[in-house]
Amino acid sequence: MDGKRLDQDPMQMPSWSMGMACVWIVNRTPEASGRLWNGTLDGALYDDDFNSNERYQAALVDLRNALALGTIQATGLLTNGQRIPIPSLEWEDMTLDYELREGDGLVHRATSTGGNLYTNIRIDRQAIVERWPQQDRVATSILQFPSVGQASAQRESIVFAIDILWSGNPPLGLTRTRQRQMIQDCARSHGKAVPSERTIQRYFNDPAK
Predict the structure, then answer these.
(1) Are 159 and 207 in contact (CB under 8 A)?
(2) Cα separation of 152 and 1, whole Å?
(3) Which of 74, 93, 166, 188 has its Cβ near the most Cβ atoms within 10 Å?
(4) C-alpha angle 63-17-111 in degrees, rounded to nearest 5
(5) How far apart are CA 25 and CA 39, in angstroms?
(6) What count of other Cβ atoms lies within 10 Å of the Cβ of residue 14?
(7) What is the spatial distance between Cα 62 and Cα 200, in angstroms, rounded to a whole number?
(8) How far is 115 from 68, CA to CA, in rounded Å?
(9) Are 10 and 27 in contact (CB under 8 A)?
(10) Roughly what angle, to the nearest 10 degrees, separates helices 176-189 and 197-205?
(11) HEC secondary structure over the chain
């Protein structure tokens, strides 16, 4: 869910992803959180070097503590595709990381010391809202997307390079690494904003955004 636009009201969903839960913990209103929920979250939660936003990181610590205490419950998918409750004790020493998957965008993963790998982690929405109640105010989002101007310039460079290099249609046999290098080299040689690796990957995951 963190890497895709939602097609329903988040406040009516039975469960949230880790990213959605952390956005709520920081912003605490449907209005402020909705600006991020209605987009893809990787641009708000991580910078171009995949460093975590500080407020997101603090919210993630609070969320992990609640999961370890058992006051909040989460489920996850095992590698065999089975969804199971994640035991609270496993959160004590859980390793969290993430990846950008083609077609899915940002995906959080949790690995226990026992070797269990959980993906598509879901947390009960009502439990989150009860633990971190809604604020009686319409706040400006504390977590926000990066500068529109900067993001737009990089995306314009990608479109420009794709048009120059491949007449708008990248060849299917080209590796993502080589594709990224060619786009960045083309943008650099024409004096355009050089898009980051993440921005290029996000573009191909969702060209319309």
Answers:
(1) no
(2) 23
(3) 74
(4) 70
(5) 18
(6) 8
(7) 32
(8) 17
(9) no
(10) 120
(11) CCCCCCCCCHHHCCEECHHHHHHHHHHCCHHHHHHHHCCCCHHHHECCCCCECHHHHHHHHHHHHHHHHCCCCEEEECCCCCEEECCHHHHHHCEEEEEEECCCEEEEEEECCCCCEEEEEEEEHHHHHHHCCCCCCCCCCCCCCCCHHHHHHHHHHHHHHHHHHHCCCCCCCCCHHHHHHHHHHHHHHCCCCCCCHHHHHHHHHCCCC
Residue 19 structure tokens: 């990213």
Please state whether the predicted TM-score (pTM) of the whole model is above 0.90. no
**What span, in angstroms and rounded, lies between the C-alpha atoms of 137 and 57?**
23
Distances (CA, A) of 181 to 16, 96, 163: 36, 29, 15
Average pLDDT of each block of 10 consecutive residues along the chain (209 residues)? 69 90 87 71 57 74 94 94 95 85 73 93 94 72 52 84 91 87 91 83 70
Q: In which residue are the tokens 């610590």 written?
A: 61
